[in-house]
Amino acid sequence: MAAPTAGLAGGAAGWVRALIGRLKTGDAAAHTAAAMFAAIIPVATVLLVTELWNRSALARHKFGFSFFTGQVWDPIAGQFGALPFIYGTVITSLVALLIAVPLGLGAAIFLAEMAPPRISDALTFVIELLAAVPSVIFGLLGIFVLVPFMREVAQPFLMKTLGYLPLFSGPNYGVGVLTASVVLAIMLLPFIVSISREALLAVPRDQREAALAVGSTRWEAVSKVVVPYARLGIISSVFLALARALGETMAVTMVIGNNPKISASLLAPGYSIASVIANEFTEATDDLHLSALIELGLVLFLLTIVFNGLARLMVLATTRRGTAHP
Amino acid sequence: MIWRKLVNFVMLGVTALCTLLTVSVLFFILGYLLFHGGRALSWDFFTKLPTPVGESGGGMANAIVGTGKLLLITVLIGVPIGFLGGVYLSEFGGKTFPFFVRYMTDLLNGVPSIVIGIFAYALVVMPMKHFSALAGGVALSIMVIPITIRSTEQFLRAVPDSLREGALALGASQWKTIATVVIPAGMRGILTGTILGVARVAGETAPLLFTAFSNRYWSPGLNQPTASLPVMVYTYAVAPYEDWHRQAWAAGLVLLALMLAANIAARVVISPKGAPSA
Amino acid sequence: MRTSLLALCLIALVASASGQTMLNGAGATFPYPIYSKWFDEFHKLHPDVQINYQAIGSGGGIRQLEAGTVDFGASDQPMNDEQLKKQKTAVLHFPTVAGAVVPTYNVTGVARDLNFTPEALAGIFLGQVKNWNAPEIAKANPGVKLPSAEIVVVHRSDGSGTTFIWTDFLSKTSPEWKSAVGSGTSVNWPAGLGAKGNEGVAGLVKQTPNSLGYVELIYAIQNDMAYGRVRNAAGKFIKADLSSVTAAAAAAKVPDDFRVSITNAEGKDAYPIASFTWLLIPDKIDDAKKKEAIVEMLKWALGPGQKMTAALHYAALPSNVVSKELKAISKIQ
Which of B112, B123, B145 sits opposite A274 (nearest CB)? Predict the structure, then answer.
C-alpha cells in the first residue's frame, strides 16, 4: 500500500521540481503571461458577441424575420422594422463606392504605373494622411461646406439635367443620401488608393515588360495586363472599404437627414444603422426599443464581418497565386 | 496607332486628375480648418470652461484634458494588452491558439466603433451605474488593441532570427532574449504602430457618446463623465449658435493637428523606412 | 524623474476632488438654456457642488434615470404610469418653468410673423400641405406674399419632450393627426428631416431655406430666427412670449403629482403650445451629500432661480404651484 503512493509521490515531486526549474528560467512564466494577455482578445470578442446576442433577444423573439422586412420604426407603437436603416446603410455605401472606386483606382494607377517613384511615394504619403482625419471632422466640413454646396450647386444641376429620373427627383434639402454618400466616398478614397496601389506594384515586372514588348502603349499594358492581374487585390480593397463604409457613424449622422423612410430618390433624406443607434441609444426608454437597437448593432456587426472576411479571402487567394501581397 | 496614342495620353491625364483630386482633398480640409479654426483659437479656448448655453465666450479646457485622460487610460490598458499579445503571437505559440487569436483580432478590428460603444456601455456603464471616463477609456482600449497587436507582431517578426539565435547561443533564456534583444530591435516600428493606433482612436466620437458622455465642468478622477474634443465638435457643430460653430472649428483644428502631428512624427521621424500596414 | 511624473499623473487621475459633490443629470433640451444658467449660478453660490447637466432629450433623461446612470432627470413630458413602474423608486415631478414651443421658419422673402392655424400645422407635418403658398397658410396671412417653394419640414430625431408638447397640441386640435400619428416623445413622422435636440432643429432650420421646424422659444430668439403666431382655443392668433405663456400656465389645474398638460389652454390670451417642464427626482437618495445638494438646488430654483427665467424668455411658475412644490420637497428621503 505504501509503495505505490511513495512512487506517486516521487513522480509528483519530480514533476514539480522540473516545473520549478523551468519557472526559474522564467520561460514558462513568460509564455503563460503573454498567452494570458493574448487570450484577452478572443475572450473580449466572444463576450461582445454574446452581449449583443443576449441583449437583442427581446426584439429577436418578438419580430423574428419580419424585423428585416418591416419598414416602420415607431417606438411609441412598439413597431420596429429595420429595412429603412439597412437600405440607408447599403445605398450610401454603394453610391460612395461608385464614386470612390473609379477615382481611387485612377489615382492608384497613376501612382503605381505612371508617376516617378519619389513623387509616387510622397503623394501616397499625403493620401494616406487623409485616413487619419477623424470622422467627426468630415462631418463638420460636411455640414458647413458640402451641404450648402450640394443644395446650391450640385443637386440643382443634377435635377436640371437628370431630373426626369426617379433617382434625382423630389425636394432639394442639401442633407440626404447623396450628400452622405459623397462624404463617405471621400473617407474611403485613401483605403482604395493605398491598397490598390500596393496590389498594382506587386504585379511582376515581366508582365508589364511583356506587354510593352509586343507594342502596347503604357495605358494598354496597364488596363489589359496589370490591372487584371491585380484584380483580386483591388477587389479586396473595395470590400475592405465597403466594410468601413457600413460602420461609419459620425460623418453620416451629421449629413444624412435622419429620416427612416425608403425613397427612390438619392436627394431624399435617409437613415443608416449606425446613425440611428447613435441618435436613439441613450434614450430608448422602452426595453423593446433598446433591444431593437442592439439587434441593429448585431446586424451591422455581421455585415462587416462578412465583407471583411471576403476581403481576407481575396488576399489569401492572391498569395496562393504567387502574387506577393504584404 | 494615333488613336491608341491619344487614348494613352488622355488616360494619363485622367489618372493624374484623379490623383490631384484625391490629394487636394486633404489640403482643402487642412486649409479650411486652419482658416476657420485658426480665427477661433485663443488663449480662452485652451484655458476656460464652457459658458452657459447661448452665452458667448468660454473654451474647451475640460475637453482637451478629457481627451488626454481618455488617451492615458487607453495607453495604460489597451497598449500593454496589444503589445504582450503581439509578443505572444510572434515569439511563442503553436498552431491553433495563435490562429484563433489572430482571427479574433481581425474580427475585433472590423467591428464598427458604435458597436464597441454598445459593448462598453453594457460592460462598464451599466454595472458602475454611471457614465465615466473609465468606460470611455475601455471603449477606446478595445479599439486600439487589434492595431497594437498587429503592429507589434509585424515588427517583432521582422527582427532577424540571427539576433535571437545569437542570444540563445550565449546562454540567455527565451524570455530574456525576447526582453533584451528582440523587443528593443523592433521597438521603432512598434512605437510607430502604437502612436498611429492611439492617434486613430483619439479622434473617435461614436464610442464615447454613451460611455464617457460629456461634462460641463472638470471631471476629476475616472468615475465621472468627461468632455472630450471629438464629442464637443459634434455637439457644437449641429447646434445653431454661431459662437459654438466657431469653437467647433477650433476644436476640429486642434484635433486634426494632433492627428497629423502623430502620423507625420510616426512615419517620418521614427520609421522612415516604411509605415506598418494599415 | 519619469517615474515620479507618471506616479503624479496616476494619483491625479485616480484621486477624486475631495469635498466636491458632483451631481449628474440628463434630459430635456427644452429647458437647457435656463438649467445651464441656473446650475452655473448655483455653482458660484455653492462652489463645492457641481451639477453636470447634459441635454440629450427628455426620453434620454427618463431612460438614464431608470438605468441609474444619472442622479436626476429632466423631461417636458410627464412620465406615464408605465414608465414610473419601471423606475426603482418613486420619481417625483417638480415643474421648474413654463415655456413655449414655437413654429420657427426660414422663408426667403418673408421676414414678418406668419399666422398658423392648427389645421395648417397638422397638414404641414402630415406632409399634406406641401407648399408655402398653400391655401391653408395663405388664408391666415392675407396680404403676405408667400413663395411657391416646397416646405422643408424639420422635426426631432431623438426622444423629445418638445416633440411631445408639439404633438400633444396637434392631437388635441386635429383628429386626423391624432389617429394618424398621435403624441409622444418619438413619433412616426410622416415627413421631414430629423435633427438632434432643440439645437439641432434650430440649426437645420437656420441653414435650410424654406424650412419649418418647432423649437422652444429661447432657441428661436437666441438665434434671431422668425417664429409665427398660433391660433389658440379662443380663436386668437397669439405670439409666444412671457405674458401669453404665463396666461397658459395660470389656467392650469395642477394635481398633487404635478403631472399636467397645458397645451391648447383656455383663456383668450393664452399661448396654445405651452408646457411646464419637470425635474425628475427619485424620492429616495442614498448619498446624504447628494440629497442635500439636490434639495438645496430645488429650493433655490423655486426661489431666486424663478427671477432669472424672464431674461431667457421662460415664464416663472404661478405662486400657488411654487408653494405646493416647496411642500413636496419634504417627500425626498
Answer: B112
